[in-house]
Design a protein that fits this description.
mainly alpha
Length: about 160
């Protein structure tokens, strides 16, 4: 055993055990345990926060997906409504065009009828003027060939004198 006391490894081992005994007596293990517990609590808090963030991100993703689906549905409805409206407007425009063509045709027919009536009235007026000119010319010719009645001429002169 004396050899054991002279061996360097033995004394290193004794020093090592003594060192740990002093640390245990001083309560260093309690400080280490507390420090490890606090570090574990911090890690656990970070894990809990990460889990909460992950759940929040999943909820947000689900909300965005729902909004996207709703937006796509609304876009499809709007597109269908727009197509229906375009078809309706096309039918309405076709009907309006037919109606406008009909009205313009009727207006043209009325203008033609008015022009025909005006032309007929102009022809009648020209015929009446021509007839009046012919009658005037005939009467002028007849009257020029007649001799004046002296009694009528005398009566006209007397009337002219009385009226003045």
């Amino acid at each position: 055993m004396l050899e054991l006391l002279t061996d360097g490894h033995f004394w290193v081992g004794v020093a090592f055990v003594t060192f740990f005994a002093v640390l245990a007596f001083a309560g260093v293990h309690k400080f280490a345990w507390t420090a490890l517990g606090e570090a574990g609590a911090k890690v656990q808090a970070q894990l809990d926060e990460a889990e909460a963030l992950r759940k929040e991100a999943q909820d947000l993703l689900a909300g965005i997906k729902a909004q996207r689906e709703q937006a796509e549905k609304m876009a499809a409805e709007m597109m269908a409504n727009a197509q229906e409206e375009a078809k309706r407007m096309g039918v309405q425009a076709q009907a309006d065009l037919v109606e406008q063509i009909k009205r313009r045709g009727e207006l043209a027919e009325r203008k033609i009828a008015t022009a025909e009536a005006q032309a007929a009235a102009d022809v009648k007026a020209a015929a009446a003027d021509l007839a009046a000119q012919i009658a005037e010319s005939v009467l002028t010719t007849r009257l020029a060939g007649m001799t004046n009645d002296p009694l009528i001429d005398g009566a006209i002169k007397q009337m002219g004198a009385k009226l003045q």
